[in-house]
Protein 1
Amino acid sequence: MEMDSDRLSAGWLWYGGALALGAVLYVVSGFYPAHLPVWMPWQFHWLEYLATVLVLGLFARGLKALPRDQHPPLWRKISFVAGVLSFYIVLQTGIDYYAQHMFFVHRWAHFVLHHAGAFAIAMGMSGPVLFAGLPDFLKPIVRSRPVQAVLNVAQTPVMAPFLFVGLLYFWLIPQIHTVVMLDERLYTFMNWTMAINGVMFWSLVLDSRAKPPARMSHLMRGLMILVIELPQMVLGAILSLSSHDIYPVYNICGRVLDMTALNDQHYGGLIIWLPGTLTSFAAMIVVLVTMRLNEEKAEREREAREGAV
């Protein structure tokens, strides 16, 4: 009982300290935004900050709750934490300021949210750890039919790649992009949709388990990777080879780096084209490796059963 009380006190101390740090960042960024280094928030947002703190707190709590033999390997823990922190970096540091004034920085930020950072989180395979860290009253909600129904629809072989590519294209429709970049609430919503969709898609593709319990076979995952790759290459090629400025909103916002509009757009297109393609290539390698490992595991289990007989 005393140990449980100590753990509860430590948990409250952690969250209290995090809130105090958030309050300090809020005040400092509000009064001295121009004097802060690039790694500090130029415009503090409680939502992104608290989401980062809560996710990392649940992760730590889950690790304490689970037996050590149920922990993910160290490299998966590092991958998960690195992915979460990468989200924080692009959303809550001075990088976000540049992302609102330079198209190619904006594309780098979304590459992290939709590809690299989400990829790292998915490679962490930390869903069971986060679930173990949830308060008991929230666990039935996660298991509830409405939540599972949403996942069942969003993570089907048709809907998952459609949402992944569709969101990328939708937010880059010039008329929509202009409105979003000039509206802080829509800008925040756009970033959240890209981050959540990225995590959902890559978690589906990079699941190290075979089906079942995984939602999809390795063959279907490989096909989904191929489906998302071509549209990204086409969009990146259009933007990087275009001879006119498609996103004049950055002239309205004011570019903060000495770069022409076309160069800015071309670099942004290349980010969609090349790193996006490389991410798909890396995902295909992971799928092939996990497929082989699962086949070897199934073979060993079959031989063990035959030996027992």
Protein 2
Amino acid sequence: MPQAPISIIGAGIGGLTLARCLRHHGIPSILYEKMSSAPHHHYGITLNASSYRPLLDVLDLDETTFRRRVAVDNANGGSGHISPQAVINPVDAAGSPSTCFRAHRGRLERLLREGLEIKWGHALEQVEQTPTSGAGTALLFQDGRRVETRGSGVVGADGPHSRLRQCLLSPEVAALDVLPIVAYNGKRRVDRATFDNAYAPYMKGSNELETRREGSVVMNISIIEFNENSVDLSWTYSRPARGPHDTLHRPNRSAAEASSHPEDLYAELGALSGLEPPFNNAFNDVDKIRQDRVLHWLMRTGLVSLLNLQALAQRGIFFIGDAIHAEPILGGQGANAAMVDGFQLAGCIASCGVAGISSWYERQFSRWETGSLRAKSY
């Protein structure tokens, strides 16, 4: 009898990594993704060698080819280089600053998706146990479709707002914390002449550049992608919240309000003085900033207890990545942690089956706790 596929909720980096590694071990899986089609994800992320090198055999790629395929600057002949002198915290989890690089998330996910079975437009609504099928679980989707897992296991890889987690744990346990950090991110397209004159001489071949002001304000400029006649850039402005009346810190805003901003933001950015290039080009022209695609980021964290994870494991339901140990966008290692979870969990299942995941949780939990504490100290 053919092995029933493992059901993976969420086709992001963690879910895709898990599915590709399971496929490498000859274990079938199906990913269920709420998005109707593959998202573009037009932005860069920093990948650590400790996260991507274990995947090279799975992808049948050498490191040079892998980096060139997914690097933000691959159209410019680059491999995502980050200069250790250009960023504030250059050392990755493996201890080497030279092994981090900037990857385009969209291209990374496109590579990971190759050969996988993904059910698009499957937004999870509810979960039911099916006692007549052993440890089986029924997945109920918003459009009325129902999938019986037949005891093969369900893995939640659906990110910090995990619907699977919300279905199974109380609101108090499933809730996320918002750190008292103000963070705004903007995307801007500049022509090649502007980039070559106003940015490239100061970035010196690095795809990311950071500076800190007054000990707490951090500004970041990074490359998203090189186009034929233009370059897509990302900028980030962050600082600690300044008490309960800080108009730029909106921990309770709705998702729809992420793209609406108080005038105080533009006033604060416009008042920045003495910025050296290229930061003055990115932050001092308020009229340009108003034309950028600017989003307010919330720095969310969360960690589901080992006790709760073990209880759900007894029901054949498991989690990886931000779905159970969410790290904030700034100061966190969410993408890297999700990739590590994915290839390690696949190895566990290949060696011990889903019955071995409870023990795997025990071995991983201290790593997740460390990541949560590190992110909160950003």
